[in-house]
């Protein structure tokens, strides 16, 4: 079987979606872990941190060549997931030219499982804003304030976060984006494993539970970031 | 359960042939017994239409005992009507109340074009079977039980999958009009038994490629197919089919 055919059949396309999806999930783990460094500024941990832990972690991510190369892989993964996702959606939608008068609707399936393209689009729009606000200034245009720790100068990304999240509407936009990501993951996490062939009921139950837990914890942490900055639970000044 | 009679309003899709546009027509049926099957109710309606000199409604049916998979009707937004794990022919009128309006549509999928009224052309399923849903050699007469050892779990899973009657309800319900539940049932049914095992790889590759040609979508694991399947075929078969496809595709020499 030719590779081109292998990846473009009805099953192959879903295998691509699953593999890229799982790759992006692994990225989310790194991203949420690293960004959670901002919570080190909470009084419970180290109120004088003022973002130094986060800034240094972000600097490590930006300065190391290995990670910059992985970033290219990540970009490829995202693009593939988006392009293939739309291709699958368009193809699937075209398979029923004439619809029903009375639809099956929600009988037998969850809303998020039927709305992956919509949720994915919301996540994509959110991603564009997110990249423009953080990734672009720190990696491309370099127009961020500088800060020095132990004699090493780096971007004060933490300050940037704080400034961005002082606007209520940005916080709301982020919450909507994160919610869309959460619902996308609620279905996508276990569905990805099904698509690459996990059929053992024992594992499917485990993966579904893990997927729900993962989606909730990751999105809660992401949601807390803009909220805690907006409410000044963590801030660069104290 | 107590017997009762009912009067019903039926909205049925009428379409003279494959190429013409169809439309819904409304019919009244009176004194329908709660003990009748849904198809018998259609027989009553058709007799009424014949008496009036009108064209009776074309619908598929054969065994009328839930095993052939011909009776494809999309009833009130659900394939085979409201009852769980029941084909249209086994659906009884006690599922409805006096005065109900019932909307009856044909399967809607590009892989199942409408031929007339509620009858769709489902030969696409036959072609998918012809692509690989068989064992190439004659396996002979039934051998002594246990002459070929078969793991109990595999035998059970294979038998459960073999219950598929290829009615197409999975396609009708799927938002992507995917034939994955049907195809995966056939792949599991044959591939899990020793007679079908040797051709497992080619089977899945050929059947999937035929499914693509016939105009069915990909599976997105919404679970709608499993929920409406009259034979309760499990969606885990689809994951098994994806696994077989993955291994077969990766290990193929060509
Ligand atoms: S007529 Fe055979 S299954 Fe309904």
Question: What this model shows, in words?
Answer:
The complex is a heterodimer of chains A (238) and B (254). Helices cover 71% and strands 3% of the residues of chain A. With 238 residues, chain A is mostly helical. Chain A has a single domain (3-93, 112-230), classed as Up-down Bundle (3 helical TM bundles of succinate and fumarate reductases). In chain A, β1 (146-149) and β2 form a beta hairpin. Chain B folds into 2 domains: 5-105, Roll (Ubiquitin-like (UB roll)); 123-252, Orthogonal Bundle (Fumarate Reductase Iron-sulfur Protein, Chain B, domain 2). Chain B has helices spanning 38-51, 123-132, 152-162, 169-173, 180-191, 200-214, 224-228, 236-251; strands at 5-14, 23-33, 74-75, 78-79, 101-105, 114-116, 119-120. Chain B has a 5-stranded mixed sheet. A two-stranded antiparallel ribbon of chain B has the order 6-7. In chain B, a hairpin with a 2-residue loop joins β6 and β7. Chain B is elongated, with a radius of gyration of 20 Å. The interface between A and B is large, with 44 and 57 residues. FE2/S2 (inorganic) cluster binds next to loops of chain B. FE2/S2 (inorganic) cluster (FES) is lined by residues 61-64, 66-71, 87-89 of chain B.
Summarize the structure.
With 238 residues, chain A is mostly helical. Chain A contains 9 helices and 2 strands, in the order ααααααββααα.
């Amino acid at each position: 079987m030719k590779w081109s055919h292998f990846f473009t059949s009805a099953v192959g396309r879903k295998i691509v979606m699953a593999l890229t999806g799982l790759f992006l999930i692994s990225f989310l783990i790194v991203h949420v872990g690293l960004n959670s460094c901002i919570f080190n500024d909470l009084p419970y941990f180290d109120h004088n941190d003022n973002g130094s832990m986060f800034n240094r972690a972000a600097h490590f991510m930006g300065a190391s060549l290995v990670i910059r190369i992985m970033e290219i892989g990540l970009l490829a993964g995202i693009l593939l997931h988006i392009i293939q996702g739309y291709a699958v959606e368009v193809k699937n939608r075209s398979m029923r030219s004439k619809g029903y008068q009375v639809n099956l609707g929600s009988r037998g399936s969850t809303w998020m499982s039927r709305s992956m393209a919509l949720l994915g689009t919301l996540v994509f729009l959110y991603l564009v804003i997110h990249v423009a606000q953080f990734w672009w200034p720190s990696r491309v245009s370099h127009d961020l304030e500088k800060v020095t720790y132990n004699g090493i100068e780096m971007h004060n990304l933490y300050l940037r976060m704080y400034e961005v999240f002082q606007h209520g509407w940005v916080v709301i936009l982020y919450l909507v984006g994160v919610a869309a990501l959460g619902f996308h993951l609620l279905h996508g996490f276990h569905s990805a494993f099904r698509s690459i062939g996990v059929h053992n009921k024992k594992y499917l139950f485990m993966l579904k539970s893990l997927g729900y837990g993962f989606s909730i914890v990751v999105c809660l942490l992401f949601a807390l970031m803009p909220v805690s900055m907006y409410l000044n639970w963590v801030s660069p000044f104290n | 359960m107590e017997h009762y009679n009912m009067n019903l309003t039926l909205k049925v899709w009428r379409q003279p042939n494959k190429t013409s546009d169809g439309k819904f027509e409304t019919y009244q049926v009176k004194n329908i017994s709660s003990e009748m099957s849904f198809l018998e109710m259609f027989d009553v309606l058709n007799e009424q239409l014949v008496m009036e000199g009108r064209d009776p409604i074309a619908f598929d049916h054969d065994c009328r005992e839930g095993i052939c998979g011909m009776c494809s009707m999309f009833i009130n937004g659900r394939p085979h009507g409201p009852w769980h794990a029941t084909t249209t022919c086994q659906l009884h009128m006690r599922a409805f109340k006096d005065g109900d309006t019932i909307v009856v549509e044909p399967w809607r999928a590009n892989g199942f074009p409408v031929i007339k009224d509620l009858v769709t052309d489902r030969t696409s399923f036959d072609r998918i079977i012809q692509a690989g849903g068989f064992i190439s050699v004659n396996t002979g007469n039934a051998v002594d039980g246990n002459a070929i050892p078969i793991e109990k779990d595999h035998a059970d899973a294979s038998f459960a999958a073999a219950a598929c009657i290829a009615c197409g309800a999975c396609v009708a319900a799927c938002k992507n009009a995917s034939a994955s539940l049907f195809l995966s049932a056939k792949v599991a049914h044959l591939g899990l038994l020793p007679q079908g095992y040797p051709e497992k790889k080619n089977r899945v590759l050929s059947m999937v490629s035929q499914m693509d040609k016939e105009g069915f979508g990909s599976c997105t694991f919404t679970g709608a197919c499993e929920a409406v399947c009259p034979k309760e075929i499990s969606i885990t078969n689809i994951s098994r089919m994806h696994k077989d496809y993955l291994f077969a595709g990766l290990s193929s020499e060509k």
